[in-house]
Specification:
single chain; 806 residues; 11-stranded mixed beta sheet
């Protein structure tokens, strides 16, 4: 039966080539999109799955509650892991990672590179987290303070393909011996590193009580627990820990604390905690899954519509086969074989399209991943693709198979059949669904673009154009800043110079602390605040405006001590009517700066404090001089940026020959805050274009069939005086009404979807009616153009030929 069904399928495919091309093209494009999005979703949903103990590993999250709010942090105290493991015998072990303080420079002979993913880690890290070991012994790799375990890429940078075990490599302040080489961690790993240094180098000395630093956070802590561990009861462990170790400490006077556990495999998606590693957003996962589903649905609808529209053509075939003894089950199988055959051909073509898209287009950069079809690790992926293609074939073909197999033989053979109202109505509903999807994705793309334009144009409270950030590494260079300033001040293309201790003003980490602040009643109270240390002229260089008081001044001796500038949000929070002179800790407020966005527009402006840089490099111990860091902030003219950068490179080569010259622009740093949103917008636009194209393929096929069936009617109308335009409008009227109905439904659905997306921004654009009108107009123009293109030839033909049409 299968062989005969396949022969009939091939015969029909050869006889109706346009029908075959439309169906295979639509299904192939849809399958290719689904495969690409499937690879993306598979990569996202298998984060950290390479770890064999992944179900037993949990990251500890800190939560501090004060009278003015709750703050959660992905980082903990250096003491938390050891003390938790000591108090709770069910905890098998712990691993701590201390993140890097900016980029770390490593040198070997004449090879010098910066790395931003170097961590200190406990010696049992290779027992807890899975690594493919290339050289060395993981049991002893991080026992010694001078040992370092490096990735394969790190080792090749400095030593090529040779075994580097035993070789030495130099950082700013230490020399390390390579004791282990591990394979590069997979991209879908939330904590990726190129090298690990023994945590013993930064751990607390034995003589220091661990409880003393429990309120100081900065370490990622992971716990390993038994398979049957009750994570729901961990809150009791946390409460008992706070009562035993922290409740009697001075910091606990107005602060409560608890910790909770994040499963390792969920960490990539839980982005509600501060100081976290880059992670994903479940909204985007759901969005990409929905896009894949919608594109596939549009292609399947095309198949259903064209298959049922062709019912009148295949009526005699069905009638003859029934008279010759074929039952309905056999006919259903025949039509399902046909749809599955189309789907399998589309799968093969889709695989080609995937390879082309991933290799020759910037799709991987848009997705932020390196995706590829990889069949080297077994037939699992290919097997899933075959199952997927089979499912698509059955989904697209089941209704046409049931409909066609129900045709009665006698009417089919005597006079053929006419499409029933139910069949026509179903096709209209299916086309309606297509355009609900199409108009919806167009509207969502437009609204995303408007929000990204709003983000780009919104005033941030400072100037971002032509502002340059240059990292300054090491106390030796920082001490040369006055001399470097003099060199730069002679340049007409350098308009302003300042420094900053951190990059909190462009979304980087800010200081978080609890200080005693004078409230509106004059009483000092514990208050959590965010802060950043800045140098002279910072407000002027960044174009920030003073709302009250003044800026820091190096000419005033009073500014050498504790003086503060606060933002308007801080004044509002404290309820100050006159903020100048108010006390913060041991200092006083000298100025109020107008609110500025030191985080992305996802977050509202929070109270913020600016203070002068207090780093005293002269008194730094030698082992810390190399690791300290500041940032040069320059306002440049922008007239000859390459020339300015070349001059700066030469200056820093003279003053700091040990470090390569690096820089970033403020606006580039800010753009990185919205990288995922920009990617989502571009991808949604790309896939909306594909939705439109697949819908147009189906409309083209339906228009061709409808025009052919109404050829005589068109001829009669032309004889009676109808123009070509009138005939095209007549043939297009029904489609335009369906598009209008789809636009109304899509507008409501996309409004609620985008309203939910925009709530992720504390500051966002409004959703205007014109967006939905424009989306509907685009869909209507495309639909009308598709139908008109197919109808034009018939509408212009000689009516005599049409009336002779058989």
């Amino acid at each position: 039966m299968f062989k005969s069904s396949l022969k009939i399928t091939l015969r029909n495919l050869h006889r109706e080539k346009m029908y075959a091309v439309i169906n295979i093209s639509g299904l192939a494009i849809a399958i290719a999109c689904c495969l690409i999005l499937g690879l993306y979703l598979r990569d996202e949903l298998t984060y950290d799955h390479h770890n064999t103990k992944r179900d037993k590993i949990f990251r500890v999250v800190n939560e501090f509650s004060m009278h003015d709010g709750v703050d959660s942090f992905a980082v903990t105290s250096v003491s938390l892991g050891p003390l938790l493991a000591k108090d709770d015998p069910e905890i098998e072990t712990y691993v701590r990672f201390q993140p890097p303080r900016g980029d770390v420079l490593f040198r070997n002979d004449d090879k010098t590179y910066y790395w931003n993913d170097i961590y200190y880690a406990d010696k049992n890290v290779f027992d807890v987290f899975s690594h493919e070991i290339i050289y060395g012994d993981p049991e002893t790799a991080l026992v010694d303070q001078t040992s370092i375990a490096v990735s394969e890429s790190f080792a090749r940078k400095y030593f090529g393909d040779k075994n580097p075990i035993g070789e030495t490599i130099h950082s700013e302040d230490s020399t390390y011996r390579i004791t282990l080489v591990f394979a590069d961690l997979p991209e879908n790993c939330h904590l990726r590193y190129s090298a690990l240094i023994s945590f013993a180098k930064v751990d607390l000395p034995e003589a220091v009580p661990r409880e003393r630093v429990l309120f100081l956070v900065g370490i990622y802590t992971y716990l390993v627990v038994p398979d049957d561990y009750d994570t729901g009861a961990f809150s009791e462990v946390s409460d008992a820990f706070f009562e035993k170790h922290m409740s009697k400490m001075p910091q606990a006077e107005n602060t409560t604390w608890r910790c909770w556990l994040q499963p390792l495999t969920y960490t990539h998606f839980q982005n509600e905690v501060g100081y976290d590693l880059p992670n994903s957003n479940r909204f985007y996962i759901y969005g990409f899954a929905a896009v894949a589903f919608f594109i596939l649905m549009v292609a399947c609808i095309n198949y259903m519509n064209l298959a049922t529209a062709r019912a009148t053509r295949r009526a005699k075939e069905v009638g003859m086969r029934k008279i010759l003894g074929a039952n309905r089950v056999r006919l259903v199988c025949q039509f399902l074989v046909e749809s599955v055959f189309f789907s399998l051909i589309s799968l093969l073509l889709g695989l080609v399209l995937v390879e082309v898209a991933l290799s020759l287009t910037p799709l991987n950069s848009l997705l932020g991943k390196t995706l590829a079809l990889n069949f080297n690790h077994g037939l699992d992926l290919f097997g899933w693709m075959l199952v997927f293609a089979l499912g698509v074939g059955l989904l697209a073909g089941i209704y046409p198979a049931l409909y066609l197999s129900a045709i009665l033989p006698l009417p089919a053979l005597v006079g053929g059949i006419q499409a029933g109202k139910g069949n026509i109505r179903l096709r209209q509903i299916l086309v309606l669904i297509q355009f609900v999807i199409t108009v919806g994705v167009i509207a969502c793309t437009l609204l995303m673009a408007l929000q990204m334009r709003y983000v780009a144009q919104k005033s941030l409270g400072f100037k971002k154009e032509s502002r340059l950030i240059i990292p300054l590494q090491g106390a030796d260079l920082i001490e040369k800043l006055p001399t470097i300033r003099k060199e730069l001040q002679n340049r007409s293309d350098i308009l302003g110079i300042s420094t900053s201790q951190s990059l909190g003003f462009v979304g980087g980490d800010t200081g978080n602390n609890v200080l005693r602040v004078e409230n509106s009643s004059g009483v000092m109270e514990e208050t959590g605040l965010k802060w950043m240390q800045i140098g002279d002229d910072f407000l002027d260089v960044m174009g920030m405006e003073i709302a009250a008081g003044r800026d820091f001044s190096k000419k005033l001796l009073t500014d050498i001590g504790d003086t503060f500038i606060v933002n308007e949000a801080f004044v509002k929070k404290m309820g100050w009517s006159d903020p100048l002179g108010k006390r913060i800790d041991t200092g006083r407020v000298i100025g109020v700066v107008k609110d500025f966005h030191f985080a992305s527009l996802h977050s509202p402006i929070e109270p913020f404090v600016l203070m002068r840089i207090t780093l005293d490099t002269k008194n730094l111990p030698n082992n810390r001089r190399a690791e300290v860091k500041q940032f040069f902030i320059l306002n440049i003219s922008g007239e000859d940026i390459p020339g300015t950068l070349s001059f700066l490179e030469n200056i820093f080569a003279e003053f700091d020959p040990k470090h390569p010259f690096t820089f970033t622009f403020v606006d580039d740093s800010l753009n990185k805050l919205y990288l995922s949103e920009n990617r989502l917008m571009k991808l949604t636009g790309f896939f909306s274009a594909i939705c439109i194209f697949i819908s147009c393929l189906g409309l083209f096929g339906l228009a061709a069939f409808t025009t052919e069936k109404r050829t005589k009617e068109i001829g009669i109308r032309k004889v009676l005086g109808a123009s070509t335009v009138q005939i095209i409008i007549m043939l297009s009227r029904g489609i335009l009404l369906i598009v209008l109905g789809g636009a109304v439904i899509a507008s409501f659905l996309s409004y609620y979807a985008m309203d939910e997306w925009l709530t992720g921004f504390a500051y966002h654009t409004d959703i205007d009616l014109w967006v939905f009108l424009l989306s509907a107009a685009v869909a209507a123009i495309v639909a009308f153009g598709t139908v008109a293109l197919q109808s034009f030839k018939t509408a212009q033909s000689n009516p005599v030929n049409a009336l002779r049409y058989e």
